[in-house]
Write a structure and sequence with these properties.
By secondary structure, this protein is of the alpha+beta class. It has seven helices and five strands; from the N terminus they run αααααβββββαα. It has two domains: 75 residues, Monooxygenase; 125 residues, no CATH class. A five-stranded antiparallel sheet has the order 1-2-3-4-5. A hairpin with a 4-residue loop joins strand 1 and strand 2. Helix 1 runs antiparallel to helix 2. Pfam families: EF-G-binding_N, FBP_C. Keywords: Elongation factor, Protein biosynthesis.
């Protein structure tokens, strides 16, 4: 079987598996625990609308599990089917940000790309943040101002964490716009991109933001 699970989907599976584990270890009513398990299996299947029967059978093994050890083994058994984030060289990353001189980009070859939904990093010296994502099958990059804020809710992973306001200038100009036309879009995002990647479960907000800025 080929790889077919993306990082955000794996995070969703982990969350649902954790709910099943919690129900079977803390709920005395077996009917309630079974209801949680059925709901978890349904949520996982819904996240894979194009999955084959073989893939759904693999994902659906959670329906027969309940103990911590069984669920841990289940999650490990899924890791070989995780898709890799594209391996971009520093030169390829630089092409996504042609106006940025001396771009300091991460070494994607040195990280476990199975657990990346997007690559994000900051340049503290310039107060800029950079995001790279595989949008519609092609790598795309966003650059914006990085303004640290107090704790808040990240628009990507929906956790209450240390966040920053990420403001990116729109690449789209209306017809007959003046040369000075300027529009920026901002969102609060986790200051720690690695932690954000470990918890993001839905790519809809990320893709919507990229399309909003890039057009």
């Amino acid at each position: 079987m080929n790889t077919f699970i993306r990082n955000h989907q794996y995070n969703l599976i982990k969350k649902q598996a954790g709910m099943v584990q919690h129900a079977y270890t803390s709920v005395s009513d077996r009917r309630v625990a079974e209801s949680v398990r059925l709901g978890a299996c349904a949520a996982i299947a819904e996240a894979f609308p194009d999955a084959t029967k073989e893939q759904l059978d693999l994902l659906g093994r959670l329906a027969d599990l309940g103990t911590t050890e069984e669920i841990d083994k289940y999650l490990l058994s899924l890791e070989p089917y995780l898709e890799l984030f594209p391996l971009l060289t520093p030169k390829e990353v630089s092409r996504l940000f042609p106006k940025v001189k001396k771009l300091k980009s991460p070494d994607l070859a040195a990280v476990d790309r199975r657990f990346l939904t997007y690559a994000g990093w900051t340049d503290i010296g310039t107060g800029r943040m950079f995001l790279v994502y595989d949008l519609d099958g092609k790598p795309a990059g966003l650059e914006g101002r990085f303004t640290p804020a107090k704790k808040g809710v990240c628009f990507l992973c929906n956790r209450h964490q240390e966040v920053a306001l990420f403001s990116a200038v729109s690449k789209v100009k209306p017809a007959n716009a003046s040369p000075d036309y300027y529009k920026a879009f901002g969102q609060y995002i986790c200051s720690d991109s690695d932690a954000c990647n470990r918890h993001i479960k839905d790519i809809t907000p990320l893709e919507k933001f990229f399309h909003l800025v890039l057009g």
